[in-house]
Each structure stands twice: as structure tokens, then as C-alpha cells.
């Protein structure tokens, strides 16, 4: 046959079958049947393809179909919840062609729920609070178990449970195949009546030295335990034994029916706030004029300061102080308080002093014990620690005595010092007799120049100052001077000695002469040279060679040397009036002109 003919035959066959009731959709059920005291949903697939649903139930008594269906919800929907077993069918209108479709009927059967029973291990409905009662389920195969307490699931599917709480226990047995559930008759458990002890609350205890007290509880006959409990039956609490802290006290009360003891607890807070006061100096003394403060322990809720019982305005943990007083701080942590007293003393800058140590002359003196104020300091002599000033050991010279006082405050630190001079007993020495030219001057000087000594020169003739160790003398004639040196520290500490100042006539020396034989200025004349019979005269030419030499009586230099006439020019001379005193040598230059 041609291919197109087969296509037409197939098309009409499908069209026929689609309108045939035997090809229509089936009614489906949510389950195998109806469980006791339950319902079953009937429904069809693709309900949106239909409208005008009409459900019918077969009535056995009349052997006819009725639209009065015993179910939940209307009979004009695609779903129907039913509560009775039996035969059911459905009519609907197909939206695609407005044709009426009858769905094949279904038969719904009644299902049997499994047995659910609770059996207690001990035939009782009362237990002690804290104990348990074993509840057992009846044994059924192919089921699930679900235990409930007061309608709340215990999430326990065992056949045996331990019931520890009072209430109504129900066992649900669920058939694994049909899903039918059977709840047991509730098994109610109650607690034996209990005497629940309650300890009365205890307010915060301030101070571990607070007197102890008995705790109060509503039922007697039990025992107390916990920190600070010194009498377990009376519940005597001792803060001193408990010490500061948070303490939990328990009370245990025996029950009837052999039930476990019942307990209650109370929390007792023992506070013992302690406040300390520290100062900016670390002690109780302060320096006048320097910053000073007191610091209390930090972290408290409030602070109250007072000075000599007068409350101050300061409310912080630190207080600035300026004067001697009794200062007190009172602190509080919001419940308990404590206080601390501090006595402050302000002191002035220390002024150390050394008991005077006399300066002396000579070493033969008794050692002096070193003393100073305020006491407690340290002495040093020339940098070395000492307790006495020993003249013989220290020796002649100036010695510095230092006294140092050290304290905990800067104003308690200070030093004092004294210079003590040990003078030697003077013994005057002059190096030599002093010589000078008349009209000049000379410094008088012994071996003593210490300004602490007293100096007296006599006679007070032609002296610049007779009270100094080195006066300038300019006598016009030879003079003997006597020096007396005295220590100002001892009347018998002195010496005196004389020195001669020899005054010589001055030699007048011309610086040019003309040995040309004209009878005028032909020789080098030295006026007053005759006063020095041992005078030594030397004349040198420019090359340092002797041009003239004379010793003893000066005969005069005529410009010749060994009979040879010296050329004109410049020459140098050296004249020593006293060969024993070269320091009086006279030097200069002279010129020869012809």
C-alpha cells in the first residue's frame, strides 16, 4: 500500500483512541487505602487539561452512584480527600474538544493500623524527680516507633525508653507498608511531692572582719556546705573563713520515698576592698616648694578626700598636697567602702654645716673629730673619706674638708666645705746680699710669699710697701732691712732675718769717643769706675774679638790694642764692677770716630 495511506490510518487510530474512555487518564491514590481516623487523597495527572470535574461514590445500599461523596473538600475539583472506603469515579470535560470524559473507577479499601501499647517496667505512675521509669513498647514487625511527651516528639524510635520527666507519654506505631499510625493510650507519670528547699538571698558582705551569720532556708533538716560554712546544720557563714570572693553555698535536703536529696544554692559575695596610698616621693616627707601628690588605688567607683577631717572637692584617685596635714581617702566600689590615712610632712632645703676646724701653724696639734649638722652625713678630706682631721698626718698645706648629707628627697641633699690651712713654722732665708746701683731699685724677696702670712719689713725706709712679702726697695745708700714673717694662727709662729742692700755709685759710660790726638775726648772715660778697684772691662770688635781688656784700676781705653790703632766703627763693651757678682754686669755699644 502507498505510504500516505498508512499515515492516514495511523492518524485516525490515534484520534479514536484519544476519545475512547479506555484510553483516558487513571484516578490515582496517595496510599494503599484509608488508615483508621484518617483520609485519602484521590487525584488525576494533568488537571489543567480538564474542567468541570465531578466526583461520584457508589452507594452499596441503593446500588447506584451518588454525587454526595463523603470526603473532605468539594467534589468539583481535580483532587478529593475521602474518609470512607468504597468505589469512586470521576467525570470531566476535556478542554481541547469540550468532550466529556469518564475516568475509570477506583476501589478504596480500609487499612488496619498496627497495635500500639505502653507497658511500664514497674507498675507505677510516680517517680522521684531525678529518677527514671522504664517504658516499653509492644513488639510489632515492619513498623516504626515514635515516642512523644506532652505532644512533643522525643525523637526516640527505640522499643524501650527511660522516662525521667513527669507528663503524658504516647507511643506512635507507624506501619512501614501502609503508613498507618496508631497512638497508644497516654501513660501519665507524675513526681512524688517534693520539698524544694530555697535559701534566702544574702546581700553583699563588706569586709572579711564582718560578724558571721546563719543562712535562712524554707525547709529545715538539711545540711549546708561551701566556703565559710562553719556549722553545717545551722548554716553559719564566716566571712573571715571564706575570705574575699564570690562563694557558692549549697543546701541539701533529704526527701521521702527514698527520692534523691534536693538542693538549692546561694551565691554570697564577700568584698574586702583595700585602698593604698602612695606618694610622689615614695615616703611621707615632701620638699617645700616642689610638686607633691598622693595616689590612691585606682579602679573604684568613688573617692572622697579629706584634710584634717575637712572634706575636699577632689573626687579622683589623685590628690595634690602642699602642706603638713593628715590626709584621708575613702573609696567605694558601689557596695563596700574602705579608707586610708596618710600623714604628710613638708621640709625645707637642708643647709649642712661643719663644726669649725682651726687652721694652725706647725704639725704638733691634737687631731680634731669631724662634726657636722644635720648628723648622718659623710666627711671627706681632700677627696678621701675621714672621721677626724689629723694635722700631723695631713701635713703642711691647704686641705679641703667636705661634708655631704644625702636624703630620700632632693631638698634633704646638701654639702658644706671648709678650707683648713696648716702653716709651716716660718724659717726665713735670703738667697744673697742685694746689690743695686744708686738711683735704681731692687725687689726684696725671701723664701716666703704665702699671702696668708703676715709680713713686716723694718725699717720702713725707701720701701714700696713694708707689709708685703716682695716690696721694692730704692735706698740712696746701703741699707739693712729686717723681715719678720708671722702666722696669723699662732703668736709663737714667726721668724725674722735681715738682708743687706748694697748701693753702688753708678758708672757713667759714654757711647762714643774720638781718639784723634786733638786732646779732646781722646779716651773712653768711665766716670766713677775708680770706686770699683776690681772692675773688669772688656771691649769687642764686630767679630767678637777682644779689642780692649782691663782688670783692677781702669787706666782708660785710647782706641788702640797692643799698640795697634783700632779702626773707626762700632764696638761692644762688658763691664763687671764686682767679679763676684756677674749679675751687675753692664753691657752696651760704643763708637770710635777719628
Describe the overall structure:
It is a single chain. This protein has 594 residues and is mostly beta strands. Helix content is 4%, strand content 43%. The strands form 15 sheets. Strands 10, 12, 13, 15, 16 and 17 form a six-stranded mixed beta sheet that branches. Strands 26-32-31-28-29 form a five-stranded mixed beta sheet, with no helix packed on it. The model is unreliable at 1-23 (pLDDT under 50).
Keywords:
single chain, 594 residues, six-stranded mixed sheet, five-stranded mixed sheet, 3 helices, 4% helix
Give the secondary structure arrangement, pairings included.
Blueprint: H1 3-19, E1 28-29, E2 40-43, E3 50-59, E4 64-66, E5 71-72, E6 80-82, E7 86-94, E8 99-108, E9 118-120, E10 126-127, E11 133-137, E12 143-149, E13 152-153, E14 160-163, E15 167-175, E16 181-183, E17 187-191, E18 205-206, E19 213-214, E20 223-225, E21 229-231, E22 236-237, H2 239-242, E23 245-253, E24 262-271, E25 277-279, E26 285-287, E27 293-296, E28 302-307, E29 310-311, E30 318-320, E31 325-332, E32 337-347, E33 353-354, E34 360-361, E35 368-369, E36 372-373, E37 378-381, E38 384-385, E39 388-389, H3 391-394, E40 397-405, E41 414-423, E42 434-437, E43 442-443, E44 454-458, E45 472-473, E46 479-486, E47 494-504, E48 512-513, E49 536-540, E50 546-551, E51 560-561, E52 564-565, E53 569-576, E54 586-592
Parallel strand pairs: 10-17, 18-24, 26-32, 34-41, 42-47, 48-54
Antiparallel strand pairs: 1-2, 2-6, 3-4, 3-7, 5-6, 7-8, 9-11, 11-14, 12-13, 12-15, 15-16, 15-17, 19-22, 20-23, 21-22, 23-24, 25-27, 27-30, 28-29, 28-31, 31-32, 33-36, 35-39, 37-38, 37-40, 40-41, 43-45, 44-46, 46-47, 49-50, 49-53, 51-52, 53-54
